[in-house]
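DM between two lab members

TW: hey, do you still have the DUF6458 family protein entry open?
JB: yeah, one sec
JB: this one, 77 aa:
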Amino acid sequence: MGVGVSIFTITLGLILKFAIRPDAMNDPVDIHVIGVILIIVGGVTFVLQVLLMSRASRSGQDDRRGRLYDGDNPPKL
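TW: and the structure you got?
JB:
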């Protein structure tokens, strides 16, 4: 799951939590609980994606190919 999907999941959760009235739907499932779950899942995946991106940039990896660059032998494109 990428950062964009995480933001979409958070947005969908916020819509389910705050924009839909529970009496508008006669489902046995609580829409607000599903909204909170989506907010939590989206937030956790967003934080994990940011941590993984910062970790990859600190380790000296080329983002496009995942090859290590040691300074003497640049990666071949």
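TW: got it. Residues 31-58 form the longest helix (28 residues). The chain has two helices and no strands.
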